[in-house]
């Protein structure tokens, strides 16, 4: 009985430690929404679009993040050191 309980505890711990692809996608979408400072309905719409994006697009989460950050930098017309600083912050998922 003790072995069974121990096995169940260990297996539940192992399952909770490994994040699945959907959890990784949720983390990335959340970080992108936070980076863009989206709130309310805008955030809901962004999250819906981000989470429903095709997994078959051929791009990894990091590549998608790079694409989004590049588009944001272009929209803001950033160049040089300003662009580098923005990209660093955007890709790290931190707000400036």
What does this structure look like?
The structure is a single chain. The protein has 96 residues and is mainly alpha-helical. Helix 2 packs antiparallel against helix 3, helix 2 runs parallel beside helix 4 and helix 4 runs antiparallel to helix 5. The relative contact order is 0.11. The mean pLDDT is 80.
Query: Would you identify the regions where 5 or more consecutive residues have pLDDT less than 50?
Result: none
What structural category do the secondary elements indicate?
Answer: mainly alpha
The profile of the biggest β sheet is: none
Please write the string of helix (H) and strand (E) elements: HHHHH
Mean pLDDT: 80
Keywords:
single chain, 96 residues, mainly alpha, 5 helices, 75% helix
Element layout with pairings:
Elements lengths: L1 H16 L3 H15 L4 H13 L8 H15 L4 H13 L4
Summarize the structure.
This protein is an all-alpha fold and 96 residues long.
